[in-house]
Specification:
This protein has 568 residues and is an alpha/beta fold. The chain has helices at 16-19, 32-43, 61-73, 89-96, 113-123, 145-156, 176-179, 192-205, 212-221, 226-239, 245-252, 257-268, 272-284, 289-309, 320-330, 335-354, 358-371, 378-398, 403-406, 436-447, 449-456, 477-483, 488-500, 531-537, 539-548; strands at 50-54, 102-106, 133-138, 162-168, 183-186, 458-464, 467-472, 505-510. Helix content is 50%, strand content 8%. The longest helix has 21 residues, at 289-309.
Amino acid sequence: MVNPAGLFVPMSYTVLARKYRSQSFTDVVGQDAVAKTLRNAIKTGRVAHAYLFCGTRGVGKTTMARILAKALNCLAAAEPTPEPCCKCDSCAAINTGEDIDVLEIDGASNTGVDDVRELRENAMYRPARSRYKIYIIDEVHMLSTSAFNALLKILEEPPSHVKFIFATTEPHKVIATIQSRCQRFDFRTISVADIAKQLEAVLQNEAIGFQKDLVLAVAKMANGSMRDALSLLDRLISVGEPLTVELLEQYLGQPDLQRIYRLVGAIGEGLPGQALNALDDLLTGGLSELQVVDSLIEAMRDLLVIKTAGADTPLVILTAEQLKTAQGLAAQFDAPALVYGITAMERLRWPIKNADTPRALLEATILRLALSEHFLDTETLMNRLSTYGSNLKKKHLAEPHSSQTSTAKLPALDNAVAPEPQPGGSRVHASLKDRWPEILKAIEGTLGMGTACLLGRAVPTQWAKGVLTLQFAAATKVQHQMAQGNGRPQQIERALSDYLGEPIQVVFELAHSPDGPSQSQPQPPPPARSKSRQILDDPAVKTVLLGLDATITGIEEQQGPDPQDTRP
């Protein structure tokens, strides 16, 4: 810019974060509880001598401190007022940070004890024109321990004309003796809806055209910080008008949500080819693999909330068109499938950051999600297993059981008493010894030659009350141990029960000498099985696998309780 005298005058531009900084308690966005408390304190004359404002960056801590300072020192009112005029010399000077009675100190650059001693000496002097001398110390947690200790005395017995307002993003670093002398206020992160509403008001006031989809995307990118949202908006405005989603994707690396939804839709429909094409569209458009992962997590989170809480939930902030699309996608997924997808993507974030081929890892995970069937909820799973059980029972009743012919010919074992016939079942004779080779042959057909060979080294020695004792010779100690491991006892019991038509419990016994059986001795506990083998041998797991005609592809050990992890 050149003035009439031909001299260059630099153009002054005030960034949106400063231009639209809140000027009064009613203007503050997203901190209604703090603003209301401070207003009431001023009305009732209960203003504390020291405040500690805590919260993440850009949520209004310093802005609230300035507003409180204006309310205490406004020259247009005869006393502190909850409605400062924002026009008097005091209010105007506080807005620009130039008031001689309101001193803003950066705690990060004034960390030493000498700085605090100087502050204490100056605090003794009364304000020049205002009611109070106010010290606003930003990032107070950066002060050294010695500096904190130097503050203690003046905070404990402050002059009546002095007020302290501390602001920090890390309150845990402020020593307890300082916190105990302050009234603490915790500033919450600002909601996406509040940020989007403020951004729309700013753009309308600036007469800048925009798409509503863009405003929502910028509000989400701000992560609860109004200052960050206005800074992002400043960057986009400098690119050009109108503000569109394409600009957001091109200059800020934020993908179009509709393109993310195309990828999620391909996963939901089980179309791996389309899923890879949609992923390629995002990657070739300039997004990194990590940005795609983060966008997928956010999109799946929205679908999960819609699936569980309904489309009218306030927990999801979308435009009407986006919400309609999200509803259709949510119908393609079960809630457990979305939970699994989110956790799978979250586990991928760290490997992608450190991998030489991050795209391959991402494509593999996308294919895994697209090729896998949807998870079943508990009710559907139990219905399917119930149907399977009914069909199996009908088949069992329709076909004559082999035990009906085999058990009828079993001769009685010497000195053994035959059990009483069970209601509805066949009578099981006491003797199994003579027919043991025939039984082993049947077990070979059911459980395989390995189990049959193990049992071939044992002989039945006792049968009473549904318990069959099988004894191994002393020389076959290894076979005796093998028969008790890897879930074989349960398998053998089921095979014998099916063959004999009655529940059978098997007890394995090891003889003291190779010459013959001995009295039953307490057996040591079977060798510990691996966790994976215990899972595979679990009857409930086998029932599920058999009922769904499924196969376990992998077992992962869970370190701690994780309600979001629904994988087997």
